[in-house]
Write a structure and sequence with these properties.
about 650 residues, five-stranded mixed beta sheet, alpha/beta, 15 strands, about 45% helix
Length: about 650
């Protein structure tokens, strides 16, 4: 269903299209409040035919994710939970944290809604089970044991002869612990302790005793809610005056691992809510349990089929029946109720519309900020907030290489407008600009110019429906006032308005926009730093003589950092695959002479200056050969003299002042 501007505001599926569409065109008093608001905006209906109910459900889910219609259930909390990943493909597996499930044969445990809880559990596991901690690249290139080995937390299989069978036993114990089979693990450890004591291996027996104590302490801290065990997710919901809330509990081996709550302003029917939530939340890159427990039966059986395909194993969608499961439903409802209280702190779109004098509530807000580093790497960062919550999947960075060296934020923001239009829907209701009147005017002028243009060959109706829907954005800018009288308070500016909006410091709406602005600023600066560090690292290797992209990648994988490469000898370079004696000598000479020096930081330059490779520590022989010191002027370099601060007359005469060097 589409509104008057051609925007998709609702997506649904139906076995019988005539009955489903006809149910919306009944007398207004027979419709639910949500449907009444929907039908007041509907101006057109499009439909697509599929071959089965399953295809229709998948198509509905993909269209909701793409267009994010206002009147559909949309999962706005796109947070990825932390998981434990055990890589079983390696001879010496290591346990690490990850946020995505990749079907590569690894075993995953979790999820942990709290990152702090996951890291604390990892510290406990590292103390109890001594497995390798380093990443595969570090593991393959290590030449000596690390500090973890000295602390007796890693057997150092990277360099020491460690038995694969003994290491596999450690991994098996870890899997028992993470799977919740603590009793079986303690029983095995006690047997090993008794065997070690009988064979007079008392140090080993003492270590196993400490393991047993640590496991028991950890197990005692976990609250058992299912005495018979069980691994499943349980959902409970509650309706309030503010909207509809959903609580989700993660039960692993009979223990509550964590919980989350979700909130929507509209009040959908139960079937639509559960169907949309399950398909959006349990994507392929998340752990899908074998059982999903719901408060009421879900009539659409295709949901369970789709989740089973994504998991690779059968997934059951069942109703809570046991006494313990019904108690957990009450706990999930309480968590959902708490989620309603948290969401009440976010200003409603209607309040934001009144504060900014907008024609429509800003349900989708896109904030932009221009950034560059001394005129280089010009980019515009874009973050998206929907219904007051960040939607990280829609974050974008737009690069503008044509503006290199221009130092022009206005031009970057203006250039963002056509790039954003080319990206297509969903369109923003409000664009918030980090800047003042100048930045606001630059975006407004470019947006007005695109509104006035009409593509050749398009009819007026096509242009008005498609283009008008994509360009009818409200604009606002937030910046410091720059006046000393109010302490440089943030002000909100709107187009065609001389003075800022009368929002008081500390007002809830102003604080909300300040939070979005700060969020945007942090995002674009973090990307700017990441890109700069990557370019520096890549350029450092490729600037060496005789080194291209492939050789640079080999050097980077073997040495890791420019500092280690700078310390490499010709023999070390010859060990790199694909580098022979001649190329190794060529690279080493390039490092030694500094003709194509590596782009190291100021701290590295200081260290190299002390070692005589760069800067002020050059010898008299290097001065005669034309080498330049850090403080030498261009004129002194041409004359070959090295005297920092020497005058032109002293350079010509070859004299050197006292106190030089």
């Amino acid at each position: 269903m589409k509104d008057g501007r051609g925007r998709i505001i609702y997506v649904g599926k139906a076995k019988n299209l005539r009955k489903r569409v006809g149910s919306y065109f009944r007398p207004i008093q027979q419709l639910e409040p949500k449907t009444q608001r929907l039908m007041a905006q509907v101006k057109g209906v499009d439909y697509l035919c599929t071959g089965s109910e399953k295809e229709a459900l998948l198509l509905e889910n993909s269209l909701i994710k793409k267009h994010r219609p206002r009147y559909n259930i949309i999962l706005r909390d796109d947070k990825s939970y932390i998981l434990f990943k055990l890589d079983k493909s390696s001879d010496f597996p290591g346990l690490c944290l990850t946020r995505k499930v990749i079907r590569d044969g690894s075993v995953y445990y979790g999820p942990f809604p709290s990152a702090q809880a996951a890291r604390e559990t990892l510290r406990v596991v590292n103390r109890i089970f001594a497995l390798r901690k380093c990443r595969p690249a570090t593991f393959a290139n290590r030449t000596r044991p690390c500090l973890q080995h000295q602390m007796r937390r890693c057997p150092a299989p990277c360099v020491l002869p460690v038995s694969k069978e003994e290491y596999a036993k450690r991994v098996e114990k870890l899997e028992l612990f993470l799977s919740g089979k603590s009793k079986e693990l303690v029983r095995r450890l006690k047997q090993e302790m008794e065997t070690a004591a009988q064979e007079l291996r008392f140090e080993e027996a003492a270590e196993i005793r400490d393991q047993i104590k640590a496991v028991n302490r950890t197990v005692e801290q976990q609250h058992v809610v299912q005495p018979q065990g069980g691994t499943f997710d349980l959902l409970g919901y509650v309706e309030t005056e503010q909207g509809f809330a959903l609580g989700l509990l993660f039960i692993r081996q009979g223990k509550v691992l964590g919980s989350r709550s979700f909130f929507w302003e509209q009040k959908p029917d139960y079937e639509e809510l559960m169907r949309s939530f399950l398909l959006q939340f349990y994507s392929r890159d998340r752990i899908i349990p074998g059982r999903l427990v719901l408060p009421r039966k879900l009539m659409d059986e295709t949901v369970a089929e789709i989740l089973s395909e994504r998991r690779g194993l059968r997934t059951k969608v069942v109703v809570a029946r046991t006494r313990s499961e019904k108690k957990l439903l009450s706990m999930a409802r309480n968590n959902a109720q708490q989620g309603v209280a948290k969401n009440s702190d976010i200003p409603a779109p209607d309040r934001l519309a009144r504060a900014l004098s907008l024609q429509a509530p800003p349900r989708r807000i896109e904030a932009i900020d221009a950034s560059h580093l001394s005129g280089q790497g010009t980019m515009v960062g874009q973050v998206v907030f929907e219904e007051g919550r960040p939607f990280r999947d829609a974050y974008r960075i737009y690069h503008f290489p044509e503006l290199e060296g221009s130092f022009d934020d206005y031009a970057a923001l203006a250039a963002w407008v056509p790039r954003r239009i080319a990206s297509g829907p969903p369109w923003p209701d409000l664009v918030l600009i980090d800047g003042g009147k100048g930045q606001l005017a630059a975006v407004q002028r470019e947006l007005v110019r695109h509104r006035s243009q009409k593509s050749e060959g398009e009819s007026a109706e096509e242009v008005s429906e498609e283009r008008a829907s994509g360009l009818s954005w409200d604009l606002a800018a937030i910046a410091k006032s720059g006046k000393g009288g109010d302490g440089g308070q943030d002000r909100i500016y709107r187009p065609n308005r001389k003075n800022p909006l009368p929002l008081k410091p500390g007002q809830e709406e102003l604080l909300f926009f300040q939070n979005i602005r700060d969020h945007t600023h942090r995002f674009v600066l973090s990307r700017q730093k990441n890109i700069r560090s990557k370019k520096t690292a890549q350029g450092s290797f490729e600037e060496l003589p005789g080194v291209g992209p492939k050789t640079a990648e080999l050097l980077r994988s073997c040495f890791g950092s420019p500092e280690k490469l700078y310390q490499a000898s010709p023999e070390d370079l010859k060990k790199v695959p694909g580098i022979g004696p001649r190329k190794a000598e060529q690279i080493h000479q390039g490092l030694k002479s500094g003709a194509r020096s590596l782009k190291l930081g100021a701290g590295n330059a200081e260290r190299e200056a002390r070692s005589g490779k760069l800067g002020a520590g050059s010898s008299e022989r290097e001065a005669r050969s034309g080498e330049r010191g850090t403080g030498s002027s261009e004129r002194e370099a041409r004359s070959g003299e090295r005297g920092t601060g020497s005058s032109e007359r002293e350079a010509r005469s070859g004299e050197r002042r006292n106190g030089e060097r």
